[in-house]
Amino acid sequence: MARRDAPQDSYYLVGISFFVLGLGTLLPWNFFITAIPYFQARLAGLNSTAETLSSNHTGPTDTFNFNNWMTLLSQLPLLLFTLLNSFLYQCSIPEVVRILGSLLAILLLFALTAALVKVDMSPRLFFSITMVSIWFINSFCAVLQGSLFGQLGTMPSTYSTIFLSGQGLAGIFAALAMLMSMASGMDAQTSALGYFITPCVGILLSIVCYLILPHLEFARYYLAKKSSHVPAQELETKAELLQSDKKNGIPNSPQKATLTLDLDLEKEPEPEADEPPKPENASVFVVFRKIWLMALCLVLVFTVTLSVFPAITAMVTSSTGPGKWSQFFNPICCFLLFNIMDWLGRSLTSYFLWPDEDSRLLPLLVCLRFLFVPLFMLCHVPERARLPILFRQDAYFITFMLLFAISNGYLVSLTMCLAPRCCHMRGRWLVPL
């Protein structure tokens, strides 16, 4: 909820801009993992005119272990450069440099990936160039996301939700782009080229949206307050927590909580009543001691998800005979289904938060997700020597993916919503210095 003296977001241009920026931050990762059949076909020695997008070159033919290396070289730089971004902030490197520089670098690297579709080269050289591109793309994505979340901290909480919605739809967008490329009827090389040009357009649109922000009065109002005021989002979140403490149950909606706090402030005769209360400074270690369980749960959720998706799930094929369903099985049942259900799971926390931060059920639910690792490994993966295939029918894989994806989205969003409540003690905020 915007403050009463703030200008209006005319035509929702600021909201649309942050939605597009959210979409652009996760487009690179989703377009890479969705195009696994293309990369595996190139690494199997097929030339660029072969059926690269729709082929299923997995198992023993994947001598480069592309899925495993891609996951490692995507998540490791995300972790390292997320930490590095805090030092870049302390070094007073302007946000415009970090955000625009990252977007331009990602655009150039994706343009290189698109250009390689037309270039015939040895599988080993192609693998090396692709891995280097994945490393640097995710490094710049980490800096980009950290910097954008820093700006969102000055905006009303609604805009953080819009940004996260854009991120959630990035995977659906990539999966639909893959399906359209496969169903277009064009030759495989043209389809692959069009597929990789699509995120370039999305990133270019993100650059345009970010350049527009300084020219919008609503964005200037909040971004100018970054160094001198407590963010409006902090006031709204505190209102929600106060309402939750009064009822000792599931909190009311953020909108109702914010309205209640605003009415209480209007009753105060002092001129400083409209100023939001300042939080109590605390060290990072003090805050971490309060949120360590939520942080651990979040790490475990991502550990399970990234252990099998897409490294294992992308190798699962349909048990039916050759045909259209077999060709579209993995793009639909793995990537599209995962992203839709993950987005749905994230949206559920807008309606209820269960279990709460004090319940032992939350760590139990998180640990139960480790069962998905053996379940997916025992699905239908052909030409496998060591493990048996216990879940051969397609219905098993689809059921596992539904539960896997919706639990990932819900538990990730739930832990991120509950963590701030752990820092609220005795009517005060504990925030790091």
Give short descriptive properties of this protein:
Growth Hormone, Chain: A, 3 domains, 2% strand, 67% helix, mainly alpha
Your description of this structure?
Strands 1-3-2 form a three-stranded mixed beta sheet. It is mainly alpha-helical. The chain is globular and about 65 Å long. The protein has three domains: about 10-230, Growth Hormone, Chain: A; about 230-275, no CATH class; about 280-433, no CATH class. Helix 1 runs antiparallel to helix 5 (about 125-150). It contains 15 helices and three strands. The two termini are about 25 Å apart. It has helices at about 15-35, 35-45, 65-90, 95-115, 125-150, 155-185, 190-210, 215-225, 230-245, 255-265, 285-310, 325-350, 360-370, 370-375, 395-420, and strands at about 280, 425, 430. This is Equilibrative nucleoside transporter 2 isoform X3.
How many β-strand runs? 3
CATH C-level class of the largest domain: Mainly Alpha
Q: What is the overall shape?
A: globular
How many structural domains does the protein architecture include? Answer: 3
Class from helix and strand fractions: mainly alpha
Q: The CATH topology of the largest domain is what?
A: Growth Hormone, Chain: A
Average pLDDT figure = 79
**What's the number of helices?**
15
Which range best describes the helical content: under 10%, 10-25%, 25-40%, 40-55%, 55-70% or over 70%?
55-70%
The strand order across the widest sheet is 1-3-2
User: What's the main sheet like?
Assistant: 3 strands, mixed
Distance N to C terminus = 26 Å
Per CATH, the architecture of the largest domain is Up-down Bundle
The share of residues in extended strands comes to under 5%
Name of the CATH superfamily of the largest domain: MFS general substrate transporter like domains
Multimeric status of the protein: single chain
The run of helices and strands is: HHHHHHHHHHEHHHHHEE
In terms of per-residue confidence, which ranges show pLDDT below 50 for 5 or more consecutive residues?
47-51, 57-61, 227-276, 425-429
Rg, rounded, reads: 23 Å
